[in-house]
Backbone:
């Protein structure tokens, strides 16, 4: 449940960041677009006055009023004192013929000429260069053209400042949402935690309670077998009680692993030697099925892990391959170091159901591709769940892949 809480907090934080950032960026880019449109409108209006707006605020009467209305601009006598712009006039060879810098104090003629050269080099008629919004105007006479520059320093500074404020507010509110969620997450998950504890306790108690009657049934079956001799009914009772006992033990193992978590003893052990020993116990099964068994175990691969759990993991995977391998098929076990550091173990076998297996669900408890396999192989769909839990507790990964009639389990530590 601790991992679930952490995942929920991570999801809440990520969701908050995405939502707030999307809203904030939408508003920000709307403002940027508006400022650019307003600046373009001003440069257009200045261009209608041949680059010097002060000469005719009302451009030819009705035409000027129409331009002001078209670009959504409101001008009065004070507007000219607040508007900072300059114009560079060029000939047909792009040589500077004159400059008009009466409406800006920070730009002289040389700087204006240099800025016009940079704009001409960029090859765009409208855009930003440094802190200026410019517009290149070409008259009907090819010998006449000029570039209007509008100083947008204050606007661009405000935009940048707003961007940083947006990012700060977004992170702040995302953490605030996560904090509130963290406060209430425990109460939200409390019923689920209680239910999970009750399920674990039920599995443990039921497993212990079932062990006694199973032991009695098995003992009585042995007595019947001793008194009446071998018969298929007694053998069937004995076989089924053993299967039930094994299922109960597996459920107990899972329950204990859930309770213990990652608090178990670890030691430096030779995984190669351990896996070799497990494989040797199942080699005869593969031989009897006529299976081509390929073993490639790199010696002396050491790992810091719990010995019992590692042995259980190897047994589950190798036994699983021995159960479900096709008669006369192929199987393989390998252990090697990937990149010279990380141990990688693979166990594969040919399988009739390989193409129909859901490799994502195969590690779920009681999952089966074919219900009839339970009786034919003796499995319950618990072993791979235990294998996955062991690998997760050792901070590794395990996954299955099926291809061309062969299923392969890969474990990376």
Residues:
């Amino acid at each position: 449940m601790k991992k679930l809480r952490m995942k929920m907090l991570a999801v809440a934080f990520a969701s908050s960041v995405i939502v707030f950032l999307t809203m904030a960026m939408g508003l920000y880019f709307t403002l940027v677009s508006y400022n650019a449109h307003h600046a373009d409108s001003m440069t257009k209006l200045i261009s209608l006055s041949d680059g010097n707006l002060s000469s005719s605020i009302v451009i030819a009467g009705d035409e000027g009023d129409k331009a002001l209305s078209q670009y959504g601009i409101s001008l009065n006598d004070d507007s000219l004192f607040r508007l900072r712009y300059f114009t560079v006039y060029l000939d047909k060879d792009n040589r500077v013929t004159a400059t008009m810098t009466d409406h800006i104090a920070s730009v002289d003629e040389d700087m204006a000429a240099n800025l016009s050269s940079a704009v001409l080099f960029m090859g765009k008629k409208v855009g930003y260069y440094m802190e200026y919004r410019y517009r290149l105007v070409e008259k009907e006479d090819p010998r006449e053209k000029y570039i209007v520059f509008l100083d947008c320093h204050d606007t661009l500074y405000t935009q940048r400042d707003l961007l940083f404020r947006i990012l700060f507010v977004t992170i702040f509110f995302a953490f605030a949402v996560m904090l509130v969620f963290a406060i209430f997450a425990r109460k939200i998950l409390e019923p689920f935690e209680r239910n999970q504890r009750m399920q674990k306790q039920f599995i443990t108690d039921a497993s212990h309670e079932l062990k006694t009657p199973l032991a009695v049934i098995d003992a009585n079956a042995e007595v019947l077998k001793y008194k009446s001799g071998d018969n298929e009914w007694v053998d069937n009772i004995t076989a089924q009680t053993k299967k039930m006992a094994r299922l109960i033990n597996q459920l107990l193992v899972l329950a204990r692993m859930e309770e213990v978590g990652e608090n178990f003893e670890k030691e430096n052990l030779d995984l190669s030697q351990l896996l070799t020993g497990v494989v040797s116990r199942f080699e005869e099964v593969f031989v009897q099925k006529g299976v081509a068994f390929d073993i490639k175990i790199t010696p002396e691969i050491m790992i810091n892990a719990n010995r019992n759990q590692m042995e259980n993991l190897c047994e589950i995977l190798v036994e699983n391959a021995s159960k479900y391998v096709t008669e006369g098929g192929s199987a393989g076990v390998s252990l090697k170091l990937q990149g010279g550091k990380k141990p990688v173990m693979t166990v594969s076998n040919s399988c009739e159901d390989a193409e129909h297996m859901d490799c994502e669900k195969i590690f779920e408890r009681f999952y089966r591709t074919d219900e009839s396999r339970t009786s034919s192989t003796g499995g319950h769909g618990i072993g791979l769940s235990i294998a996955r839990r062991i690998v997760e507790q050792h901070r590794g990964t395990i996954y299955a892949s099926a291809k061309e009639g062969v299923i392969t389990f890969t474990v990376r530590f």
